[in-house]
Specification:
It contains seven helices and five strands. It has about 180 residues and is mainly α.
């Protein structure tokens, strides 16, 4: 049976944890076995990834530079555009959405009333690179909005990517016309 190499590397830790757990159970020290397996798995995964990156380095130095149009706009930025995060076309249904432009609108509208999908009103304040909604004291980092931009527009909260923290608030803010500003 042929397995995908990336799949094998990603599951090294889990495999070692199960081996450690089994040995720990047999020897009467389940937790110790689990931690030993985890530690060995992390070391093995680092070694495997190190070999992959070293072989990738050799091919990268001999291969011509890829300048395809799918390249991220932030990688080709010049002058005053350096440092801006732009969602690349292959990751977004909306190529070229600039998180910095969206973030400036989010900052500009802090303190104004927004509504969750079910109608609950809230305001928010911006602390550094995070939004703090008035109805909770959690901080939703700017990176969460950047992740969500790859999938806008949303029809419902469930359309927000699963790995985005605070999806109800992210939905309410990003889908508000003041923040959308006709971009999606």
């Amino acid at each position: 049976m042929v397995l995908n190499k990336k799949f094998d590397v990603d599951n090294v830790i889990v495999g070692f944890m199960f081996i450690g757990m089994g040995l720990g159970w047999l020897l009467g020290h389940l937790v110790a076995g689990l931690f030993i397996g985890l530690g060995l798995g992390l070391v093995a995964q680092a070694l495997m990834e190190g070999k992959e990156s070293a072989s990738g380095l050799e091919s990268a130095t001999s291969a011509p530079e890829d300048t395809s149009p799918r390249e991220s706009a932030s990688a080709t930025a010049t002058g005053d555009e350096v440092g801006k995060t732009v969602i690349s076309p292959e990751k977004s249904g909306n190529p070229g959405i600039d998180i910095e432009a969206v973030w400036s609108r989010i900052v500009a509208h802090q303190g104004e009333t927004f509504h969750l999908l079910k109608g609950q009103a809230f305001t928010y304040r911006v602390e550094g690179n995070a939004v703090v909604p008035s109805t909770t004291q959690v901080k939703i980092h700017k990176s969460q909005f950047a992740k969500a931009l790859s999938s806008v527009p949303f029809k419902k909260v469930a359309d927000v990517p699963k790995d985005v923290f605070g999806p109800s608030y992210v939905y309410a803010i990003l889908m508000d016309p003041r923040i959308r500003d006709g971009d999606w």
